[in-house]
Amino acid sequence: MTTERTTQTALPRRIAHLDMDAFFASVELLRYPQLKGLPVVIGGGRRRADDLLARLRDTYPERDWSETTLDRIPLDFFPRLAGYTGRGVATTATYAARQFGVGSAMGLMKAAKLCPQAILLPVDFDEVRRISRLFKSTITEIAPVMEDRGIDEVYIDFTNVPGGQRENGRALARLIQRSIHQATGITCSIGVAPNKLIAKMASEFNKPNGISIVLPEDLQTLIWPLPCRKINGVGPKADARLQAHGIHTIGALAERERGWLIEHFGKSYGDWLHAVSWGRDERPVVTESEPVSMSRETTFERDLHAVRDRAELGAIFTRLCAQVAADLRAKGYQGKTIGIKLRYDNFQSVTRDVTLPDATDDAASIRRHAGLCLKRVDLTRRIRLLGVRVGKLVKPGTEGAAPAHYSGNHPSVPRSVQDKAHDDHTHLLFPDLD
DNA sequence: TCTGGGGTCCTAGGACCC
DNA sequence: TCTGGGGTCCTAGGACCC
What we know:
The radius of gyration is 26 Å and the shape is globular. The chain is built from 16 helices and twelve strands. The protein binds a DNA duplex through α5, α10, β9, β11 and α16.
């Protein structure tokens, strides 16, 4: 790390944050251009967008659908938000729907009240993932140092890319923006700054289809006036605590002594708050990472009871375990920690987990151990969500790659033998112990 | 009319070891 | 027998992000 930094050129750091504009809605509009400008809410449904036309054929067999394609379905035939029942939330909403107060993460029942005429479309995850891969590969062909931050966001290190320094990064940002639009038909917004923290804020400055450059000397004018909530890492809880101290902007945060922040927010978080308020962030752009856990969870249509809805709950539980096992195998992982998550009707969540001596990707084994975890929680209360999680992941085949002198807890060695070997080892290190 | 699903990271206490 | 300090692992909960 250190050597890398000293041997590299002394070019100023140019970190870009890119996110796709209204990504889920934009993907839907590619398929249904006739919805442009109309209030559309995405989310809630379990049905694939592809199925819409097939459903219309079934529902209205008397009508001639021969000339109708997905992009030419008459507006009348799209499902409306009015009358929606269920527990879905809006993944996103078009600008026309936002004008009615509908926002992402809002319950669809509430959204239906605000804008009943809005068209409701289910998320087409396959298509969203396909376009996600497409825009990311478009980026890496131009600038290879890219960090994946989710379905519609990335960081890119422009610093050493040819042309990455031109116009403080604006030229390369323009090229990437144009290339993504050509490849996907969707626009994006890009912020370029000396680090990830500022770049993330900058990408929001000029939405949609915007580019913003923030230089170190812009800290006071562009960053300090922003509310603390704009900092990636300050959520609703921390923001409320800051507000209670009269700290409403990043500038106000920067006025506080580091010691005061540590006193009120703890060593780690207080220290971090102080650093970010002064625009300091040294985190590198990380191009590869290993997953830590995989999970599946579901919220029921109605709250279930462990005894009264035993059969239904059992079937869902088995399905979740099978799905996690399938996910593990698909990605080539096994895990040692099996856990469950419950959400009660009052929204309180509890988790239980257990760590096994050996990693597994077997559905029956996961189901067995998760079942034991389930016995450790209160099952007399009504449940709205059930989840299954596998953590402490290892890639089978690479886990045996420990060095020869390694004598720690190896998964393939039974516990009793492990302990014995360990005792022998300590005997050598501390011969005078007994 | 409450509030999805899939993640990461941090904290804190207790067990256990040296 | 008492005291103590450092370290790791496990577990539960919670904040936060996309």
